[in-house]
Specification:
By secondary structure, this protein is of the alpha+beta class. Helix content is 22%, strand content 22%. The protein contains 5 helices and 16 strands. The strands form 6 sheets. It has a 4-stranded antiparallel β-sheet. A 4-stranded antiparallel β-sheet has the order 13-14-16-15, with helices on one face. A two-stranded antiparallel sheet has the order 1-2. A hairpin with a 5-residue loop joins strand 7 and strand 8. It is elongated, with a radius of gyration of 20 Å. 23% of the residues are buried. The model has no long low-confidence stretch (mean pLDDT 86).
């Protein structure tokens, strides 16, 4: 009865749009299914067993037990162990629903969403030493403009900033503590929630694009060493009805040992 298994580290989307490991879910909680929320009624830990890994053409890796059901696009169902290269799997057909906006500041919801995205992509804090957070941007370069936008937003709500040739510092403890909760180092970066409407999502993605590259075709590629942020970026684009491809590089030859995720 419990042959259908996935690893307890598999990430799911909760009803408050936070991402968590499925092993942390308990009965009564709600998680996202195909465009709607579903309530967990029971769970089982079935011990150690072989796990298959399927590489999908959208950049994902699907990990499950050999007995897990694989649902094909045509409606057929088969054991995961019987799957073969070229099978067309069923994917969600409806976008994620809209939820009430969230905003812990006096900025407009869209402006705060942009600021949050820029911090996750390009920011850090001085906590606990100093009650402030910083957004990078070198004078004379493209990112100087994002510093000016941060400065303008803070002026509107009466928060002091300090300009440096390589960054701008925002001197506000509540905002700094909120940003700190989103992670201090790149592998820890994440969004506290994706609970927002479509206009906020657009602003958030715009902010997150601070640490991205744009091809001549207009294709945007985000880079991160945070697995959770990579998944959240995929969800955000799905909320905008846009497809996303993720590629993970382990042997990237760069500094550090963390894998790099490219979200295109």
């Amino acid at each position: 009865a419990w042959g259908d298994c996935i690893p307890i580290s598999s990430l799911i989307l909760r009803d408050n749009y936070t991402v968590d490991a499925i092993g942390n879910v308990v009965p009564g909680e709600r998680i996202m299914g195909d465009g709607q929320l579903t309530t967990v009624t029971e769970y089982a830990f079935t011990g150690e067993k072989p796990i298959l890994a399927f590489e999908l053409n959208n950049g994902s890796i699907l990990r499950c037990s050999p007995e897990h059901r694989a649902l094909l696009r045509a409606g057929e169902e088969k054991r995961a162990a019987d799957s073969k290269i070229g099978d067309l799997l069923r994917t969600p057909t409806t976008p994620f629903p809209s939820f009430p906006v969230f905003n812990p500041s006096t900025l407009s919801p869209e402006d705060f969403a942009w600021l949050l995205g820029v911090y996750v992509a390009d920011g850090w804090t001085d906590l606990p030493r100093h009650p402030r957070f910083m957004i990078s941007g070198k004078d004379g370069c493209k990112k100087e403009e994002q510093k000016r936008r941060v400065q303008g937003l803070m002026e509107k709500i009466g928060i002091n900033t300090r300009w440096d040739k390589r960054y701008i510092a925002v001197n506000d403890r509540p905002l700094a503590e909120y940003m700190k909760s989103c992670g201090g180092h790149a592998p820890e970066k994440h969004l506290p929630s994706l609970c927002m409407n479509q206009e906020q999502v657009k602003s958030l993605v715009e902010g997150l694009a601070a640490d991205s590259s744009v091809a001549t075709s207009g294709t945007i590629t985000h880079g991160t060493t945070s697995e959770v942020l990579a998944l959240q970026l995929r969800i955000l684009y799905r909320m905008l009805n846009q497809s996303v491809h993720i590629k993970r590089w382990d042997d990237h030859g760069g500094l550090g040992t963390h894998p790099i995720y490219r979200i295109t």
